[in-house]
Amino acid sequence: MKLKxxxxxxxxxxxxxxxxxxxxxxxxxxxxxxITRRTGIKQRFKADKDEQTSDLAYKAALVAIKRAKxxxxxxxxxxxxxxxxxxxxxxxxxxxxxxxxxxxVSAFDISAACSGFIYMLELAKSLVESASKKNVLxxxxxxxxxxxxxNDRSTCVLFGDGAAACVISAxxxxxxxxxxxxxxxxxxxxxxxxxxxxxxxxxxISLKMQGNDVFKVAVNTLANEVKHILSKNNLSKDDIxxxxxxxxxxxxxxxVKEKLELKDEQCCVCxxxxxxxxxxxxxIAINELYESxxxxxxxxxxxxxxxxxxxxxxxxxxFDGE
Length: 322
Ligand code: ACO
Fold this sequence. Notes:
- This protein has 322 residues and is α/β, with parallel strands linked by helices.
- It contains 10 helices and 13 strands.
- It has helices spanning 21-25, 32-39, 53-67, 93-101, 116-129, 153-156, 211-232, 250-260, 271-274, 281-291, and strands at 4-13, 17-20, 43-46, 77-81, 106-110, 135-142, 162-171, 176-183, 191-194, 206-209, 242-245, 300-307, 311-318.
- The strands form 4 sheets. The protein has a 5-stranded mixed β-sheet, sandwiched between helices.
- The chain starts with a strand and ends with a strand.
- The relative contact order is 0.20.
- The protein binds acetyl coenzyme *A.
- The site of acetyl coenzyme *A (ACO) has 25 residues, from helix 2, helix 6, helix 7 and strand 12.
- Pfam families: ACP_syn_III, ACP_syn_III_C.
- Its EC number is 2.3.1.180.
């Protein structure tokens, strides 16, 4: 029987501080009304000063490993997707997470912005199916507050910190059915992190986005993307138990949901609670379903994501956790 890669578990960690929309009204020309109407976001979590992306990732990893009912040293690879690593360039956040877990296994980061979770799924699927690895720990983790300009109302209100992890292991049923990923670097300048090239001091990196232009490309790309992965796998919208989109903006989620004619109960929405947590957003949403006991073993999940690059992707996977 052919070896299959399965999502064995999900676990998340959110920092304790909550920032409400009203908190921005005290120092920015913005309002709870604008943020809610244009994005659907009501609050987001924010890490402490001394709490780094690897700390969030480590805590999410512990939950996922426990729920997978394996030992920490059964993990033979760690991948972290992040745009807000502890260190830029090196060492990777995955290396730091491996160390916190007491492991010396292969560990590396990938850079695919908000699509990072889909990219990790694709990698883990092929490594597990080829029997190169047995248990791959994939973690979407962001301390995105560390790359935000809190004077820029068009970006800082949108994002939140958090981490979520999955253990991907070999099995024979409830597999990750299919993953599609793509990029278009023509749009690099619409969404990027900026550090002036010639600055002598260590000018903080900050995220820049032309939100409205990103929005237009995102809605059309995602609608086509999800239709394609369903038809490629001979599935219809009714086969999907949970549509779990990247949580960037409620209006983007609703656009794709309407294009696919999905029912409300099929669609996972938690952008109101977490904001856009970039690479962590899809696994945090999976965890939300899991902890509210709506996600059951054998449920078919459809994921879609879109982010800086541009990068985007979609995936179909059965849940194989208990
Ligand atoms: N409060 C009040 N007004 C605001 C705020 C704010 N926080 N932010 C912007 N505005 C103003 C603008 O200045 C503009 O004012 P003007 O008309 O006087 O110039 C007006 O609101 C409209 O601005 P738009 O940018 O056109 O607003 P839009 O409706 O497009 O909403 C948003 C902006 C929420 C960013 C939306 O475009 C969006 O969600 N884009 C996609 C984001 C996304 O999916 N990114 C990809 C993933 S992120 C990643 O990869 C890291």
